[in-house]
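ARCHIVE CARD
CATEGORY: sequence design from structure
SOURCE FIELD: tokenized fold
FIELD CONTENT:
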């Protein structure tokens, strides 16, 4: 029988600890502004990265966010959308009057119009790469100072960094239990985490081995590819997937005749932010480790 496991307690416990360190969350913090959600004397942040938005919420900075990405995963719907994958909505960005604009650093240059507006409007533009576990950690470490966050953000950051160090560390028996593991983002079509992805790095940090030894961070596969790989275990990393649909998700793998499926070494990791490079990887690491323990 196929087994899977999830856990949600880790990040909540980390944030509870951080709250205790700052003498109770929310006490003594200024009241939110009326229509934007911004907090007086705080930065006004337009965050054009769903991943970084997750981290800012975990840092307790949601009240300072006045603009969001269209595909944001955690902010209130009332926060103004100021861009999407197609680009920045500059009219919307001007309306929210940010002090800081936060973007993910990609392969290309920063948009020239953003640079021009930032210079004329005295905005601070911050960009962070978010491709690896180290990128995630570096961004989290830098955000409180880069954005001049108050209200206990530094204490929350320190607690989260400690949780990353604990969660992203080798687990006894993990490698033996998982063998060569295949990390799949989808099964129809088949898409896998390659060796340069943060998910592959997470697997290796726990003591595992990626069944795909070479290639890009994301790799499209077909049934023959999966059959040739013949992994010892499979992790389906599919945000918010319904565990009741696991048999449907596994159908393409059964067609490939995988041993891992026949022997029940398949885990569904369905944390809602499981594919988003952020502090969510703390909980995702714990879910992966918990699943592997069932195979020991």
């Amino acid at each position: 029988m196929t087994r899977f496991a999830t856990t949600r307690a880790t990040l909540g416990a980390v944030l509870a600890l951080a709250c205790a360190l700052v003498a109770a969350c929310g006490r003594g913090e200024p009241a939110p502004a009326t229509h934007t959600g911004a907090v007086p004397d705080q930065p006004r942040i337009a965050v054009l990265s769903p991943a970084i938005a997750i981290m800012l919420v975990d840092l307790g900075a949601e009240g300072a966010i006045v603009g969001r990405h269209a595909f944001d995963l955690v902010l209130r719907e009332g926060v103004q959308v100021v861009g999407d994958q197609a680009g920045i909505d500059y009219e919307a960005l001007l309306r929210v009057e940010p002090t800081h604009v936060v973007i993910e650093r990609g392969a290309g240059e920063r948009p020239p119009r953003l640079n021009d507006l930032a210079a004329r409007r005295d905005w601070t533009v911050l960009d962070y790469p978010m491709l690896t576990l180290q990128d995630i950690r570096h961004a989290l470490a830098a955000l409180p100072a880069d954005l001049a966050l108050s209200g206990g953000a530094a204490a929350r950051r320190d607690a989260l960094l400690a949780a990353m160090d604990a969660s992203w560390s080798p687990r006894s028996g993990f490698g033996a239990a998982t063998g060569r593991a295949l990390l799949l983002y989808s099964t129809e079509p088949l898409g896998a985490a390659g060796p340069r992805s943060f998910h592959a790095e997470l697997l290796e940090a726990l003591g595992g081995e990626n069944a795909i030894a070479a290639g890009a961070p994301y790799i499209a596969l077909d049934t023959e590819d999966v059959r040739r790989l013949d992994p010892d275990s499979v992790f389906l990393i599919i945000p918010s997937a319904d565990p009741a649909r696991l048999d449907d998700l596994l159908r393409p793998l059964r067609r490939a005749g995988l041993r891992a499926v026949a022997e029940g070494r398949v885990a569904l990791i369905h944390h809602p932010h499981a594919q988003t490079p952020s502090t969510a990887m703390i909980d995702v690491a714990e879910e992966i480790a918990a699943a592997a323990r069932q195979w020991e």
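CARD ANNOTATION: The chain has two domains: 30-150, 174-293. The chain is about 40% helix and 20% strand.
SHELF: design records, drawer C
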